[in-house]
Structure formats: C-alpha cells, structure tokens
Amino acid sequence: MLSNLAARDVETLIHPYTNLATFRETGSLVLERGHGVWVYDSDGRPYLEGMAGLWCTALGYSNEELVEAAREQMSRLPFTHLFSGRSHDPAIELAETLKELMPVPTSKIFFTSSGSEANDTQVKLTWYLNNALGRPTKKKIICHRKGYHGVTVATASMTGLPANHADWDLPLPGFLHTGCPHHYRFGEAGETEGAFAARLADELDALIQREGPDTVAAFVAEPILGAGGAIVPPAGYYAGIQAVLERYDVRFIADEVICGFGRLGTWFGAEAMGMRPDSLTFAKALTSGYMPLGGISIDEPLYREMVSQSAKLGTFGHGTTYSGHPVACAVALKTIAIYRRDGIVEGVAAKAPHFQARLSALADHPIVGEARGVGLIGGIEIVACKRTKRQYDPKAGVAARCVAFAQAEGLIVRFLAGDRIAVCPPLVIAPAEIDTLFDRLGRALDRTRAWIA
Ligand code: PLP
Questions:
Q1: What DSSP character marks residue 290?
Q2: Sheet strand arrangement including 175-178
Q3: DSSP state of 28
Q4: Confidence of residue 3 (pLDDT cuts 50, 70, 90)
C-alpha cells in the first residue's frame, strides 16, 4: 500500500540528521524513482537532484548498466565474505583497479560498507601500526573543526561539528581539532589567504608541540570540507600542513569520501588540492551510491607491519561481514569502467568553469556572503550583512528555509550548519541542467530574502 506514505513515515521511522522535534510538522519528502539528474516524489513531481543524493550518485539515476552489473552478480554469487582467506573475483578485480587509480603509493585495499567504517578502520590501523612500531604513546588523532568523518564512536569524535558531540559524550579523549581552513569566516580583517594558511599551519604545529609530538599519530582531512559547509581551503594550505606533519612524523590521511572519483575534476581531491597523503579513505561515488561500499588504501610500510602483527597475534583481527560485498564490488567495477569509458572525470573538468561561474555569480545576491567551490561542488553562505559578515540568529533557520523554497522550485540542495547551502549534483549533469539548477537556486534565494523582510 503506497497511500499515506508520509503519514506512515512519521509514525514509524527515525530519520538520520533530522530535527525529530519539528519533523512531525515538516514531514518527509518521499521519493519514488529517478532518471538522469532528476528524482520524482510519490506524487510524480520532478526535482533536480542538486546534491547527488548525499554527495554520491555521480552517474545519476536509472543507470541500467549498474543495475545489470548488480543483477548479474546477485544471480551468480550474491554473497561470500573475505574472512579467513575466502575471496571472490569482483573484490580482487576492484582492488587491482583501485590500486591503479590511487594517487598515492598503494600496496593493498581494505573494503568496508561505509565511509564511517572506513575512517574507523583508519584510526584503528594507525593505533595498530604505532603499537607494532613500538610507539605505544603515539595515538592521538587530529582533524579539522567543521570536518566530517562519520558517526561511529571514533569517527564522530573525529568529526568537528557540535551536533556530533553535544550530549553524545564525545569526542573521546585523544581526538583533537585544529582550525577550520575557511578564510571567508575565520580569516582576520585584512589577512590574505596565504597568511591565513600559514597561521593555520602554525596553529597545527603549536597544537602538536603542546600535546607532545610522541603522542600525535595522524591528521585526517577532507580535500574540501563537505558536511561542514562545502568549504574550500586556501591555495597552498595543504603544503604548509604537510610540512608540519612531516616534521613530527604524523601520518596524513585524506578523507576522499566526497571528493574521490571525479568531484573536483581530478580522480581524487588530493590531486586537486595538492595533498600527498599516506592513505586515502573512499566510499560514495565508488559505486555512484548504488550500493554501500567504502574502503581505504594501505601503503607498503603499513602492510608490512600488519603482516608482522598477524605473525605475532595469529590473525588480522578486524573486518565486517559485508567488507567487500560481491554485489557492491561488481557495481563499483562497472561504475569505474563507465567513469573511464565516458571520460566522466574529464567531463567534470570541462563543465566546472560554467558551474563555478554560475555559482560565483550568486555572491552578488543581497543575502549571500560567499559562493565558492571547485569542480562540481560548491557552498554558499547566507548572511544578514555582507559587509560585516554578520549571520542571522541560527534559530531563524534561514538556510533551512531557503532549501525548502528550493524544493518548492523543484530543486534539491542541502543546508548545513552556519547558514550554508551545499550544491553537489551528479557528475553527469548537462550544461543546460546546470543553468536550471542555478536559476532555481537564485529564485529560492529571492524568496528567502522576501520571507526575511
Ligand atoms: N567522510 C566524509 C568526508 C563524508 O562526507 C561522510 C559522509 O557524508 C563520511 C566520511 C561518512 O560516510 P558514511 O555516511 O558512509 O558513513
């Protein structure tokens, strides 16, 4: 029975990242099907999916080749695990393909089912590595304020957002946060982006010194901070950060869950943002969001220690039932084959100037303080005063209201803390659809301005 879905939803489901107090009034948007960059609600109304689902449906909806890859694997071998040396061809082939693609020296691939599990694995392996190396105190993990790395106990601790900490008894001890590389919001009056980047590198250096370099194990960072507000760090920022990490022998991990697989017009965000990490975390666009799959790259020095730990302890004591699920791996293989065959990453680079021009033009809107992005991702910040960058009272929910107006215009975008709005459409979006997206977003901003007045 498909009638009254929204009413039944309110009575039965707990929704992630939803205000459960107001949800009974605001209700749900029940989506039923999708095609290309469009999704349709249960009344048949179309929406341009300006968020690629949750930053993931890179190839858009209804891609029959992905459906067929899943169907074929589902009927041949729907499940086998990778425990105790058990294996299957999609996982082996996908690991080989990913090793070729990784922008950093990679010895092996470890699969998970989500970005959270993958980052959780990064933390555990960092601890495991330093125990193997006889550095039992070198365990602290540093991330960005406003960074997002997931929701498990460890990855919510890594995440630098208040909603993930308040009343959750997090972050756990040993998880630290350093300055958010957002010049528009945190740069001082008259400070250039270069000086701001240098100041943040100094801040990280001082934090590591204060904590003691022999206690700091890893720094984990997104190339562009997604859920924190689609924030673009200043040019050269990561070069300064890397110099600090090298000074103190701190492992550098790039969280590519959003930026991986073409979002910035390069295969990985690390390439676009000048990062040289030791390891990458990936998920989302690996399967174009069609199946849950994530993973991490394992460098040779880490692999060697993992082998010697197994020799000592008797096993590698980590992994989940669905690590490297065969149907998910088959879909990922097909997704990457399409990225390669159709030149999807090059296509992003070609479309990016148009997308970024339309995005930056929004900065002229009377209630927009910043509009900035890279590739096919961008963030805008709504402000009460453009000159002073003063924000509206968070309780007014201005960005949330703008997103609701966008939805009424037939556009899905996402509001984030600090009155920011993220735009992150499927990578297959056509130039005319980019125009539709920004035309509708512009009208939503106009309606928000009228609503405020
Ligand atoms: N890392 C980043 C950068 C993310 O954006 C996300 C999710 O949005 C995660 C990790 C967590 O991934 P998941 O929601 O699949 O657990």
A1: S
A2: 108-112, 294-298, 279-282, 251-255, 216-221, 140-144, 175-178
A3: -
A4: low
> Closest Cα to residue 160, out of 205, 226, 214?
226
Output helix, strand, coil percentages for the chain, rounded to the nearest 5: 45, 15, 40
Point out the ligand 1 atom lying closest to the alpha carbon of residue 222.
3
Quote the ipTM score: 0.99
| Distance of alpha carbon 169 from alpha carbon 167, whole angstroms | 5
pTM, rounded to two decimals:
0.98
Asked if residue 281 lies in contact with residue 384, where contact means CB atoms within 8 angstroms, the answer is no
Ligand 1 centre to CA of 257 (Å) is: 6
Residue among 112, 121, 123, 148 whose CB has most ligand 1 atoms within 8 A, to mutate: 148
Percentage above 70 pLDDT, the chain:
99
Contact 252, 127 (CB under 8 A): no
Looking at residues 232-236, what average pLDDT do you find?
Answer: 97
Question: 388 C-alpha to center of ligand 1: Å?
Answer: 33
367-398 pLDDT, tens digit per residue, is: 999 999 999 999 999 999 999 999 999 999 99
Confidence grade of residue 72 (pLDDT, cut at 50, 70, 90): very high
**Residues near ligand 1 (Cβ within 6 A):** 54, 114-116, 119, 148-150, 222, 226-227, 255, 257-258, 283
Ligand 1 centroid from CA 149, angstroms: 5
SS3 272: helix
